[in-house]
Amino acid sequence: MRSRIILALACAIASAVLGAAAAFETRATKLQAIKTLGIVSAIGEEMSLTQAGLTGLGNTAQSLSISAWGLDELIVQQATKLLSGRFRVQPVSYRRAAFAAVRDSAVAPVNLLRSDPFKELVRSDVTPQGLDAYVVITRARSKLGNGRNVEGVGLAEYRTLLADYGLIHALYEVRIIDGKALDVIEKRAAAPLDNTGTVRIAGPSGPVDETLGGAASSERLRAAVVDLITRSLPVTLGDMHLIDSQ
User: Can you give the residue ranges of every domain in the chain?
Assistant: First the structure.
């Protein structure tokens, strides 16, 4: 009986390894076939203001418009510069609000069996159609402290009995969608840039000293968000094998 169990486990492990290898080979083959590429970005129209921790349990997150910051335009420009060395990047038009309206991340494990909502949006809301692939960059979500969700661009204040901590974040995820079959070739959430902060979340973030009210409209805050994006995007695209790893 024990030998049968061991044999079954060995077969299951071997099957999983072979399946992962086949999936990697298929993904690599699809990436090699891509010549023309379009870029969609929809993360930067709003900034969330979140309080969490021992004294923030009863507070709800707020948001304010930062459309004037032009973050999505900046992301498209940077991604175009990074990807143009390998692909022919073509400008595309799209309804940014339609992509931004998808709040539930399909990258999260609980959603892996669902149909990715961004595939249909590429079909219905992006022109021109028929490019080899589309890179779609949208908000990602993470847990902060006591379990409160934060997403996209935001400023969080985490309070303890002894101290307050300010955290700026720019959470996003990247998908490569096949322009013909509309399959998701690859998807990945941007990883943390470092893990040295007192308060940590699963994505690009960093400490700030300002209070929620005083920092929300400052150029210094915008510069901090831009820094998170410009440092993390090459790493994320490298992890997805779209450019040489940074």
Answer: 1-33, 35-239
Q: Which helix (H) or strand (E) holds 41?
A: strand 36-42
Sign of the CA dihedral 148, 105, 77, 27? positive
The DSSP bridge pattern shows strands 133-139 and 88-89 to be unpaired
Strands 133-139 and 36-42 turn out to be parallel
Distance CA 63, CA 169 (A): 14
User: Which parts of 111-219 are beta strand (E)?
Assistant: 126-127, 133-139, 141-144, 148-151, 153-159, 164-170, 172-178, 184-189, 205-208
Whether the link from the prior residue into 109 is cis, omega within 30° of 0, is no
Residue in 54, 213, 47 with CA at minimum distance from that of residue 147 = 54
SS3 40: strand
What is the DSSP code (8-state) at residue 116?
A: P
Q: Which fold has domain 35-239?
A: Rossmann fold (3.40.50)
Mean pLDDT by 10 residues, the chain (246 residues): 52 42 64 95 89 60 86 97 96 95 61 72 95 97 78 84 79 96 93 73 82 57 93 96 80
